[in-house]
Design brief:
heterodimer; A: 417 residues; mainly alpha; Herpes Virus-1; 2% strand; elongated; B: 309 residues; alpha/beta; Purple Acid Phosphatase, chain A, domain 2; six-stranded mixed beta sheet; five-stranded mixed beta sheet; 11 helices; 14 strands; 34% helix; globular
């Protein structure tokens, strides 16, 4: 081989390498993502982030920050500062915070704090009703503008009706009296506009258990007048507790007396739930004198619905009927009438052979148990003498005696028509 | 206060002013409740049609001065109105006594006595500048307050601040076109109607206009307005802001308080603004002054202890 041939060969080889290198570079420029991936694969978050920022992909750059391990974060933060400059970096973090406020408050908080935007961070937690985190951030605000910032935040919370948070923020920086006073005055306003439950918690948190007790009592009465029994009971129990704490035995005793009457209701519920309808019914008069706000019809309906659910639809008819009779409210009455229809069709589908339902209170007495037959009870009549009896009684009788108790004709259960 | 009605109590206080310092917590609470009952629902911009008036600047717990002013007012019935420009409490020694006396006067003459809200009639200020401490002392020495409530906020303090929420923000004398306010006017042009539509009982002074009316100061060296050293959202206002406001609402003069002035009064901006200061208790070397607007609309300035009513 001649020398010029070797030279050409080497020259050709070098040119080839240069071409390949140029091609690869071009490819890299076209697909920088791949370069980012390469950086990421090697854990070089800073270079990856820098690349994102150069490409104006701020969202990706921000997301990357939240994905990396904590020990790499400080370096990344300084890279952003270096790359964007102080002002734009602050803007970058604030934008990130705004974007993440909904989806991930923790990350948003991080971003806000990096921007030094304590105000926005606290505001976010006020909006999310999270006083704990809000207070934590408030304590990090530089002392030079802590008070003025907290005042503005407190106003923000107050104007949105979040009085306890407004007060907590002030207390957090040592303005305890001011926070208490704001809450207490707001509590008075709430008391005046019929929101005793809010007033009560506010009084409680400013250490005025006596007033909290009054508010709870007020709340109980309000709940009672709206027929919200459970809430009323809870409120009265709270009132007793508050009066006890504020050393007012007289008031505590008075409310306890009221609370005792709720036992009546519990007993009624127990009877109704056990299916002891008659015992429950006996209590209805007493309950409606003690609790004028509770409608009698509701009590009857409660008995009826327990009976219906426990597979005694024919007995529930009586009580639905009484419920419908004892209410003046057309909507409620329609509800009971609907229930009667529902139960009626249920009974019809369950009805045994020859059985019917009494449509009214009958003058006849059951020939088995000798009790008067009432509306809604399942009845049957003897095919021979037409005497009327409760269906279940008559069937039971035939099984044992094999004859009609009235006309003594021989009968089997299958003979009833 | 067994078997005595509120009007009787007020009469007794106005016959013997020192009684105002000796009231019990219960009696004060009843005065406050009556006061709130009287003031609740009244417009935030009060208007008086006509007549002569006394104008009183900051009192700041100066009971002696207040006594002499009220004495001058009640003994000279040719004076139709008396206007207090706020800041009755804090700093001085007798905040509670001053309020009791003033409330008694207002309950006795609800149509003739006018009490405009000052910046110290707000929790953020009076919880720190003496009023709350005074009430704590007062309740601590009184036997009626229960021991269990020692550390909590005295109810009296809460009630007083509730009553401050019912105070009007400004007052207009419709015949002479004078505008009375504690601090001044907001830097944005505002009409009287807009003032009247501001929310009342603004506990935290979160409305920027209300805050400015209670806190702003006039400065002759400022043309429009500038930031104030008093804090966030507070400004000093100059000639143009005043001219705009007076022209827009067809007013002649702004009469305000809010600043300590050695002579007790100062006219600014070619007599378009009068600044008054009345308290002497806490401020050494200050000579407190009050103004009298005669039934012809002339303004006379004098020291409250001289008999020039």
């Amino acid at each position: 081989m001649e020398a010029w041939q070797i030279f050409l060969f080497i020259f050709g080889f070098v040119v080839l390498i240069i071409i390949i290198a140029a091609l690869r570079r071009k490819k890299q420029k076209k697909e920088p993502r791949q370069a980012v991936h390469t950086y990421l694969e090697h854990g070089d978050y800073v270079s990856a982030g820098r690349m994102f920022l150069r490409q104006k992909k701020e969202i990706e750059a921000a997301n990357l920050y939240f994905q990396m391990p904590p020990d790499k974060k400080p370096l990344y933060e300084s890279m952003i500062l270096q790359q964007l400059g102080a002002q734009s970096a602050q803007l970058f973090w604030i934008k990130t915070g705004r974007r993440l406020e909904r989806s991930s408050p923790d990350q948003a908080k991080m971003a806000y704090l990096l921007a030094g935007a304590h105000f926005d961070a606290v505001k976010m937690f006020i909006d999310r009703n999270n006083p704990t985190d809000a207070i934590e951030i408030v304590k990090q605000i530089p002392i030079s503008h802590q008070e003025s910032t907290v005042r503005r935040l407190s106003q923000y919370a107050f104007n949105r009706g979040k009085y306890p948070i407004a007060a907590d923020l002030l207390r957090a920086i040592g303005l305890v009296d001011e926070g208490d006073a704001i809450l207490a005055v707001a509590a008075h306003e709430f008391g005046a506009i019929e929101r005793p439950e809010i007033a009560a918690t506010m009084y409680d948190s400013v250490g005025r258990q006596d007033l909290a007790g009054e508010s709870q009592e007020h709340r109980g009465e309000q709940a009672l007048s709206q027929g919200k029994i459970e809430e009323a009971k809870a409120a009265f129990a709270e009132a007793v507790k508050a009066y006890d704490e504020s050393n007012q035995p007289k008031n505590a005793l008075r409310v306890e007396e009221r609370l005792k009457k709720f036992n009546l209701l519990d007993k009624f519920r127990d009877y109704a739930a056990d299916g002891n309808a008659e015992a429950a019914e006996d209590m209805i008069d007493e309950i409606s004198t003690s609790f004028p706000a509770i409608a009698m019809s509701d009590l009857y309906a409660e008995i009826a619905s327990v009976l219906e659910r426990s597979g005694r639809p024919s007995e529930s008819v009586t009580y639905y009927d009484k419920a419908a009779d004892s209410t003046n409210n057309p909507v409620k009455r329609q509800g009971y009438v609907n229930a009667l229809r529902r139960v009626g069709s249920l009974i019809a589908s369950q009805r045994g052979k020859g059985e019917s339902v009494a449509t009214a209170n009958l003058s006849e007495k059951c020939i088995v148990c000798k009790r008067q037959i009432r509306k809604g009870e399942r009845i049957v009549s003897c095919p021979h003498c037409k005497a009327v009896a409760h269906y279940s009684h008559f069937v039971e009788w035939l099984k044992v005696q094999g004859e009609c108790p009235s006309c003594h004709a021989r009968l089997k259960v299958d003979d009833i028509k | 206060m067994v078997g005595k009605t509120i009007p009787e109590l007020c009469d007794r206080i106005l016959a013997d002013y020192d009684l105002a310092i000796k009231l019990t917590t219960e009696e004060i609470n009843e005065l406050i409740e009556r006061f709130i009952f009287l003031k609740k629902g009244k417009p935030i911009l009060k208007r008086i049609k006509s007549g002569s008036a006394l104008v009183v600047g900051d009192i700041h717990g100066d009971f002696d001065i207040l006594k002499s002013i009220i004495d001058g007012f009640t003994k000279n019935d040719y004076i139709d109105h008396i206007i207090f420009l706020g800041d009755i409490v804090d700093r001085g020694s007798q905040s509670i006594g001053c309020l009791n006396l003033l409330y008694a006067l207002i309950i006795k003459y609800p149509e003739r006595v006018h009490f405009v809200r000052g910046n110290h009639e707000a929790i953020s200020v009076n919880s720190r500048y003496g009023f709350l401490a005074d009430i704590r002392n007062f309740c601590g020495s009184s036997e009626t307050e229960e021991i269990t409530l020692n550390n909590s906020l005295p109810e009296l303090y809460v009630n007083f601040n509730r009553s401050f929420g019912t105070l009007p923000l400004a007052l207009v004398h419709e015949e002479f076109r004078y505008f009375f306010v504690h601090g001044g006017i907001p830097i944005e042009p505002i009409s009287l109607k807009e003032i009247n539509d501001l929310p009342k009982a603004d506990l935290l002074l979160s409305n920027p206009t209300i805050k400015q009316m209670l806190w702003n100061d006039p400065r002759e060296e400022v043309e429009m307005y500038s930031y104030s050293v008093r804090g966030d959202g507070i400004y000093v206002y100059g000639q143009k802001v005043i001219d705009n406001f007076l022209k827009k609402n067809n007013l002649k003069m702004i009469i305000r308080a809010h600043e300590v002035i050695p002579d007790g009064y100062i006219y600014l901006f070619n007599k378009k603004l009068l600044s008054l200061f009345t308290s002497e208790d806490f401020y050494q070397g200050v000579s407190g002054k009050i103004a009298k607007i005669t039934d012809k609309g002339k303004i006379k300035i004098f020291h409250p202890l001289t008999n020039s009513y």
